[in-house]
Specification:
single chain; two-stranded antiparallel ribbon; 15% helix
Amino acid sequence: MKVIRAILVVLSSLFLVLFTLSALILIQPNWFKKPINRLVAEVSGFDLTFERLSTTLQPGQLNAAGLKLAYQGETLLTAKQVTLTVSDWPSLSSPFFTLNLKAPAFYYTLDDNGRSNWPQSQSPEPPPSEPKPLLLPKDFAFYALVIENGEAKIRLPGQNRDIQVSNLNLERIAPERARLTLQTTIDQQTFNVNGEFALESEHQLAFDLGLNHPQLETLLQATLSTRPAFDGSRGKLKLSLENTSFLEALLGIKIPQLPKTTLQADFAIGEHYQLDNVALQLGEQRLNGAATYSPVEKHLTARLNSPALDIDAIQALFQDSEAVATGAEEVEQAVTEPTSNKEAAIDWSALSELALDLELKVASLKAQGLNAETLESHIVLRNDGDTPKIALALSSGPMRFEQRQLDALSVNAELHPLSLQTEGADADITLSAKLNNTISLNTKGKANLNGLSGQALQLNIDSANSAELWKIAGLPYREAGALAIKGTFDSDGNTVTPDLAIALGEQQIDIEASYTDGKRPRLNLIANGRNLDTRFMEADTDDEKPPQTEKAADKNAPLFSRDPIDTALLQNMDADISLDIKKLRTGVNQIDEIAIIAQLKDGRLTTRNSRVALPDSSLDISLDGRFTEQTSKIRTEFLLDSKNIGGLGLEKAAQIRNGRGKVDVKLSTEGRSPHELAGALNGSIDIKAQDMIMDNNKVNLIGSDIFSELFDKLNPFAKSDPTTQLECVALYFDVDNGLMIGDRTLHVETSKMKIIGKGEINLGKERLSMNFTPIARKGLGVNFSQVVKLVKLYGPIQSPRIGVDAGGLLTSALSTSAAMATGGASLIAQNLLERAANSGSACDPNKKLELELPEPVAEEVDTEGEPAAAQQPGN
C-alpha cells in the first residue's frame, strides 16, 4: 500500500512540475530564450538565438521570429518567421501539426582543403549492425509543411550556387495521402515540381513526381520500400530533354548541344536490381534493352539492341564540347610532349569482384567510314583465381568500308591480367579473327596494354587467296597465291624486336629487326627474300591516261621542287640495314640477286658491298650521304656491266633486244632542296651499248612523244624498216654545277646511219639545247638530200621543242609545231660532220665508218639564240 502511495505522490509531483513549466512557457516564452541557447550550445556547440518567441492557446501555436543558427561566429541558418501550429495530441496515426517557415536561408561553404562551415561529427562510427526495416506511420503527422521565399547559398571550390525556393507546400489532402508543389530557381533556371505521396503500408511509400522546365520534363512513378536495401521498391522513369543550353547555364560549363533526348525505363529492387524496357533516343539514334544486377553475386547482365547507330553522328555532337576539346589537347600534348617515360600501373581490382554478361545487337552501324549490318557482340567478365578474365565474341554480316565491300567478320578474344596490379606486361591475350571467311588473324602471348616494354606475342595471319586481301585493301593486284605471315613481336624496355616470315605463294621474305626508341632511335634490320615476283601488282588493264589539261599543267610545273627535303629522320636516327634477295621477277626484267648493306650513323648514310646481279649483267652501287640541318651532301657511283641490255628491261619498255655495254656514273652534289641538289651536281655520265635491235613500230615506248618525233626525224628509215640495228649507242656528259655538257655527248650508229649530237642540259635552269645531225653510211645508195641536215632539241626540260633544217626535204608532217633551223644551222651541222668524218665508231675507235658526207656549204649567220619558226614549203 505504501508503495502505491509513493508512486502516486511522484506522479502527482511530476505532473505539477510539467503543468507549471508549460504555463510559464505559454505565458512568458521569451524567458526561455537564453536557457534554450545555453542548452543547445552545451549539447551541440551551435549558437541558437531568437529575436522573439510568442505563443497562442487557440489554436495552440508557437511563433519564433528572427531565428538564427550559427557556429563559431559564422551563420548557418536563418528564418524570418517559424510558426508551429499544434491541433491535437502528438500521434503517429493521425495529423496533429502544421509548420510554416518564412524566408529561411541556408548557408554552406566548402573550401579547397575540404573544410566545411558546418561542424563535423566527432563521435566514432557505430559498429555495423544488421539493417532493420524503417516503419512508416499509418498516416502523415502533419497537416501542411510550408516554406515561403526560402534560399540556399552554396559555395564550393570553383563554383557557387544560389537556390531560391519561392514556394514549397507539402499538404495532407486525405488520409494517408499528401500533395507536393514546389517552385525553385537554381542560378536563374526555374523548375516546378508537382507530386503526390501515398502511405500504402508500414513499409511502402508510393509517389508520383513530375519535374517541369521549358527544356526538361521528368516523371517518376514509384513505390519506395523502407525495408533494408530498399527491397520491394519498383517504379517507372520518363525523361525528355529538348536541348542542353539551360544545363550550360546551370552548370557554368560548355557542354555539347544535343538534339532532343528521351529516356524511359522500368525498375525494380528485390533480390536483384532490375531495369526493363529501357529506351534511349538521342536525336535519330535509338538504344533499347534491359539489365539485371545481383548485389550478392555482384553480377551484371545486360542486353542492348539498336535498329541503327551512327557513331560518326554521335561524335559530331561532341566536337564542340569544351571537355572533349580540352581532353584532345591533353592527349596531343601527352603524345608530342611526354613528361615521363614511366608508364602508369593498371589496377584490375575494380573488376576482380564483378561478373559481367553484356550482349549488344545493332542492325545497322556506321562508324569512321564503316557500314556494318547485323553486328552482334558478347562480353563476359569472370574471376579466374585471383584476377579477372574478359572474353569477347563479335560477329558481323555484310560490311562496307570506304567503298570496299566486306562479306563477314568474326572476332574472339580473351584477356587475363597477370595480377591485380600490373606494370610492363599486363595480361595474357588470345585473339582470333576471320574476315570474309578466308582471311584469318591469330595472336597470343603477353601484352602491355598501355606501354611498350614486356610484349611477347606470337602472330599468325593466313589468307587462302591473296586476291581477296587485295580487294579488301582496295589494291588492283592479281591473285598471287596464299598469304601466310608468321612471327613474334617482343619488347624489352624501349626496344622492340619483330621477327617475321612472310610467304605469298612461292615468294618468301624473312625479316629480323630491332628498334630502340629514345632521343636517338636505332634500327637494325635484316631482310632476306627469295623467289619474289612483283608482276601480280600490275593491273589487268592499262591505266587510263590523264586528261590533256593535267599533262599541260605538269609540263608547266618545275622539274625540281624548291621545297627543302626533310632529312630530320636521317639526322637523328642510326641504323644498320642488310637486304639480300635471291630471284626477283618484275614486269620488265629478272634479277638474280640484290645485296645491299647500308649504315646510317650520326647523319651519315653509306653503303658497302652493294650490288644487283641480273642474267648476263651486274650493277655495283655505292652511296655516301651526309645530312645536317643546313645542307645535304651526297656522292654516288654505280657501274653497270651487261651482256644483255635488252634483258635489263628495255625489251619490255621499248622493244630493244640483245646488246652489250657499260654504264659508269659518278656524281656528287650538295643542297637542301631537289632544285639546289640538281643545280650543284658534279661528275660524269658515261654510257656505251652495242649490238642492239629495236622495233621501229614500238619506238614510242621509249619515253614521251617528243623523243619518238625526234627519232623519226633523225632516221628516215624508221618508217620503212621494221627494225633498226643499233650497232653503237654512246652517251657522255661532264657535269659541272648542274650543267651537263660535252663535245662527245651522243653517238648513235645503226647499220644504215650515224647520228651525232652535242649540246648541254642545264639542270639548275631546267633547260636544254641539243643538236643532232644524221649521216647515211656508204653503199646504201642514199642521197644526202634525203636526210635532214640538223635537228635541234631545245627549251624547258619538261616541254622541249624540235627545230629542223631538212636540207631541202621538208614535209608538212615534220613542220607541225616545229621550228626551222636557219642562220647558224649549217655551221653547227658542218662541225658535227667534221667530227663524224675524223672519228671511228664511238664504241670502238679502231673501227672506221664509211659515211656519205655532203659537200661543204656556205656558212650562214645565226642571228637568233633559238631556231626560227618553221616555214611551209613554197613560202
